[in-house]
Amino acid sequence: MGTIKQVALVGGTHGNELTGIALLRHWREHPDEIARSSFAVETHLANPKANQANRRYLDQDLNRQFHIDDLGDFTLTGYEHNRAKALNSLLGPKEDPRVDFVIDMHTTTANMGMSLIFNTDDPLVVGMAFYVQQQMPHATLFFDNMPSRLEDNFLTSLGRYNGFLIEVGPVPQGLLRADIYLETQQAAKHCLDYLELYNKGEVPELPKVRQGYQFVEKVKLPKNEAGDLTAMVHPNLQDKDYEPISKGDPFFLTTSGETIAYDRDETLYGAFINEAAYYDVSVGLSLMRKIDIELKSEPAAG
Amino acid sequence: MGTIKQVALVGGTHGNELTGIALLRHWREHPDEIARSSFAVETHLANPKANQANRRYLDQDLNRQFHIDDLGDFTLTGYEHNRAKALNSLLGPKEDPRVDFVIDMHTTTANMGMSLIFNTDDPLVVGMAFYVQQQMPHATLFFDNMPSRLEDNFLTSLGRYNGFLIEVGPVPQGLLRADIYLETQQAAKHCLDYLELYNKGEVPELPKVRQGYQFVEKVKLPKNEAGDLTAMVHPNLQDKDYEPISKGDPFFLTTSGETIAYDRDETLYGAFINEAAYYDVSVGLSLMRKIDIELKSEPAAG
């Protein structure tokens, strides 16, 4: 697919995740920090109106609106439906995008540390994850299953390559933590460095395989008929992202104090444990499977 | 002032602080847990509309609307202005309240642990703080300065006694943490137990004096002309609520990475450090002074 010419650094896809938004502001005043010699970098605040309102979104989650069918569906008329189409014009069009690569900066209330989320096994993208992890060994690789770039509904799928989410936590919505800000800044810098090395054919030797976590499914918190939550993430599970959950382990705690145990036979791993953003759909956590992620070939353009 | 006959347990004064709201629901199904023999307990969701919207407030912070002048000012017509007047009818009127004591359950994104906030040196109220701390020794006493109950703008000032805030953190807005839920439940139970002991003349021996923190002032984060924050709470200060801050200590970190030092001569202590709710007024933290809080006489009715 050739070299990378145009990279979009995006923040504020969720309007109350302030870290990426503050970094975009910082970089507009310090463009040298994100300038690289072999490609152009543009910065975009994805959902300014949700940011003004200090909300994740106004009408619907922007980061689920980029499926090719939805981008072409003009009966979808919510604010984020329209915003997605506008971003498709700006960065895409999805079928033949102007932008080569989108890096989207997110935060989570879950204790996920530095998580690198990607949806494709393309060597360029997997190579970016491995490279960033080489620089930041505490980073976790989070592989989400998406059928194809065109059917992917994330903003990062607008680029010619299916791009990359930097997801850092824990941090509450609507505030800046300096540690999370600095981590995100570092990770974004490494992503850009990697693309520069790629263009120059100078990507250092990367591991052939690394351990990561593959998304399996989301688990809902129990509710009563009135729609109110009747249980919470169990204290033993809270903050234990990427740790194993085995049959019989405490999973939820009802508001009356009874423990509900995890009842699957397969040991899985939690992620997005008690993410505030998922309360609108009563999701308590994601279950993940530990996997080996393969780098299928050398990501060497140049 | 005689015995306590009517107690209001309040949650959701800030609509995105879900802990108190979940406890109110739990207690409506388990009324025995908050029933006491010598007084009646009523439960109130203070700002249901903000809770539905998962916001702190719709128009203005409800917990600043209870100054006697504002309650009588009918030119104040925002949602929370009106809600305050409605609560004044329900619990007050402030000048001669129906309810004896209001206990209001709050959470904070700051690392304040179990904080007991009260605005008066009345022995009944100070006795409650000392009693709860006897049961929960990790609790911190937070004394806020208010001129008088009538001029106090907190919801808790609607009671005949100027009541009591249970403030627990850290927890992000818009989610439930089981540990914070259980802590809040315990503290509320101890408050009710104390009032029961008070009515029966059986309050155990309490310390004459305890160390606490007195509110001094709020400190704003720096902004640029566009109104955007240009600095964050310094990583060395983040999560260090109730720890000393002395001249020269790192205080803020600019988004460009420069440290701004604390420049006052007096060593003070932080609280509400990086509280998300205060970003609307760019407040980074509260400064507190360490003080001795005195129990001026035995809180013995009976």
UniProtKB/TrEMBL annotation, chains A, B:
Domain of life: Bacteria
Keyword terms, alphabetized: Hydrolase, Metal-binding, Zinc
Cofactor: binding details: Binds 1 zinc ion per subunit.
InterPro entries, per database record: AspA/AstE_fam, Aspartoacylase, AstE_AspA_cat, Aste_AspA_hybrid_dom
Residues of the AstE/AspA barrel-sandwich hybrid domain: 212-290
Cofactor annotation: Zn(2+)
Domain (Succinylglutamate desuccinylase/Aspartoacylase catalytic) ranges: 4-195
GO MF term list: hydrolase activity, acting on carbon-nitrogen (but not peptide) bonds, in linear amides; hydrolase activity, acting on ester bonds; metal ion binding
Residue numbers binding Zn(2+): H14, E17, H106
Cellular compartments per GO CC: cytosol
Active site: E167
HAMAP family documented for this protein: Aspartoacylase
Protein family (similarity comment): Belongs to the AspA/AstE family. Aspartoacylase subfamily.
Full protein name: Aspartoacylase
Naturally occurring in which organism (per UniProt): Reinekea marinisedimentorum
